[in-house]
Model the fold of this input.
Amino acid sequence: MRDTRNPLVWPIAALAALLLINLVVSPSFFSIDVRNGQLYGNLIDILRNAAPTLLIAVGMTLVIATRGIDLSVGAIVAIAGAVTCTHIAGSSQPASASTALVAMGMAIALCLALGVWNGFLVSVIGIQPIIATLVLMTAGRGLAMLITDGQIVTVNNPTFSKVGAGFVFGVPLAILISGVVFAAVALVVRRTALGLLIQAVGINPEASRLAGVRSRSIVWTVYVFVAICAAVAGLMIASNTKAADANNAGLFIELDAILAVVIGGTSLAGGRFSLVGTAIGALFIQTLTTTVYATGIPPETTLVFKAVVVIAVCLLQSPKARAVLVPRRRTSPPAAAPSAPTPTAPTGA
Amino acid sequence: MTLQLDPPQVGARIKPRRRIGVVPQRFWSVIATFALLIAMFGTGASRYEGFASPQVVLNLFVDNSFLIVLAVGMTFVILTGGIDLSVGAVVALSTMIAASTLRAGWPALATVVAVLLVGTVLGLLMGLVIHYFEIQPFIVTLAGMFLARGLCYVVSVDSIPITNGSFQKVAQGTVPLPGGLFVTPAVLIALVVVGIGMYVLHQTRFGRTVYAVGGSEQSATLMGLPAARVKVGVYVISGFCSSLAGLLFSVYSLSGYSLAAVGMELDAIAAVVIGGTLLTGGSGLVIGSMLGVLVLGTIQTFISFDGTLSSWWTRITIGLLVLVFVVVQRLFSRGPR
Done:
């Protein structure tokens, strides 16, 4: 009884079902080879391809937990790739390690500034997050085109290609980066009060401010954080393709990231989030894509499957739909977002 | 052969301003948009030869007729405080359905009906899920977008040309205006849609309920207004408008293509925002959205007249304009969010 309440049950079940389908279709699906001390295999591929989405989704989880949303991450991915590749291609030593490091530093610094900008619009000016980030979503790809001068800039720098395609201790570096960021965020929100504060802001920004939470700084910080995540994801994508494509790099990745967060059981109404759920969501999306390829279904139809999955998952998590589908008496509404509790009394002197 | 229809009578209804005394507050944003449009056009006219010719103005309508239709539907949705991300994908799906059914030998009328039906039903389904299962419009229409784009690929991965006689006739047809000017039949359809949109919003019970739901759904429900019907209804309208825009687009491009109209939902939302509609719902005018589309069209015209500007300035300029309008809206409407 209690297990069906856990919001992670359905995503995990869906992910397991997908993996099982793959196992039936190709029995060697789970095998992992070690070649030259490096790991290869379908599961490793899924993890590696999911890494950029997972990275952004972790940042997005925190943004959504504060009742926000960031639509501009796809544009930031494009900008990060554009800055890095343009700088490397235009430098006097396009193959040296220092050039790559400087270029990546520049990209992350610029994207940090963009995150500060998004956060400023949302937390200081008070514009709805979806609109505030829509501005950068629209203008961002134009900005990336401006940086690359409308060209697809290709680079060949061994240090830079490590970010997306390299191995460290036999494990793809992209997986390690996403894993470390995930673990760090999980640690910080679990072991410090930050997780609680983010939830408080998401439930009711005004009430939490009155209770002494610095809600403005928290909201601002999460937008900066997600922008940095997107920048690193952009580096991974550009490094993997060895090129910056201002038009197509990270196209629809904001939607995939939001999808991962929603599948993971985080409520878009804010105030309740699950990082583990997000990770499962991101893996699920990537596994779905891989499965479509593996089972020989035309890959173009992946979008149809994604649509069906989104609707199914949302319906399963919606209390209204559960009431219809599972006519069972409930003791407490499980997924209802807390609707604006009364502000706590100001602490008088 | 040309189609002879009534000339558009839009000029007379564009600006409900300059009444004696104070202009009602709800017209301010539309007046601001109109002023922006005039200012941009004035700048263009002073900088480039031939920018101010009447045909350039008419071409704004000709090249953006489908976007005007989309923006009208989007206005309804945004007025209730929702959002529809699926419109661009539905446009693409409509061109695919039109092209493939025509290739299969369907009569033009049957194709038109089929396309409009698919768009409307998709809108209806999204509306029902949004209202009855209380899932955020953002997510539901996102799924709708995935679904429509995916279905495009299911129909065909390649571009399909439209060779149907009636469609080609409409595509080549022009409506002559005095002075050697012309518009296309699509422009007339778009203006009719704008007219109907204005009528429905301002003269019918449905329209008033749209504003009421956008202001506060709870209050609207408590007042006994049919909030459910209106909330579902706006998505039906948006779905219908998207498929109609898809038909206009397929006539404009005479082909069906899966990657058509990528990002057009952003243009539609930007047009509505620039047109002065409040994104939180409850305030805005259809005519503003049309002016918003014309502003976007003027930016394009600017860039094509000025040979040195590159096309990516379009996106940057649109982003900046949206920013300015949203910030101004926010500053003017201080209060509880």
In short: Strands of chain A lie at 32-35, 38-41, 153-154, 167-168, 171-172, 243-244. Chain A has a mean pLDDT of 84. Chain A touches chain B through 47 residues (CB under 8 Å).
